[in-house]
Structure formats: C-alpha cells, structure tokens
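User: For a reading group we're discussing how well predicted structures match intuition. Take Carboxymuconolactone decarboxylase family protein. Before you show the prediction, I'll give you the sequence so everyone sees exactly what went in.
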Amino acid sequence: MKEWDAYNAAAREQGKALNALHPELVKGFGALNRGAATTKHLDAKTRELISLAVAVTTRCDGCIDAHVRKAKHAGATKEEMAEALGVAIALNAGAAFTYALHVLDAAGED
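Assistant: Thanks. Here is the predicted 3D structure of Carboxymuconolactone decarboxylase family protein, as structure tokens, for the group to look at:
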C-alpha cells in the first residue's frame, strides 16, 4: 500500500517541476479543475464522490489522493466513499462484460 502523505508531497514537487518547464500547461489544468468545481446543481461532496469513482476507473493515484482528501473535507464518510466505489467496480465489470461481447462478435461464426 502507498504512504499517501509521502506520495502527495512527491507529487507536489513533481508538479512544481512541470510548472517550471511548462507553466501554461499547468495554468490550463488549474483552470479546467476550477471550472469543473464550479457547479450549480451538485454539492462538493457529491462531486468528490463522483471524482473518486472516476479516479478508480481511470487508475489515477494522484486523483485518488487528491479526491479522498477533498471528499473528507466535504464531509464524505468512508461508508459513502465505499458506496461510490461500488458504482465504479460495477461499471468496470459492466465494461468488461460488454467488451467480452465484442470479442465474441469479432470471433464471428464458425
């Protein structure tokens, strides 16, 4: 298992390095995140629970780290996170099932 505080610190240092190399990229990424966080219909906790489910499906360690922190700050409980993760797990299984059907289709008729 990861030591998440150390992971976060290392990621922040690498983020600073990327910013020094390509500040417009980092500025654009920040603007995208601020835009996504500016919503009228979803509260912060709901956005973070969605973010956690997406982070799991995209296998993004940095996203997991950031959004667990934000979800906790928004008041999400471990139980709520577990339910959101259940949706992610089911969707991954559903995607695998659907792609299994693609394999059968590609295999054709004998």
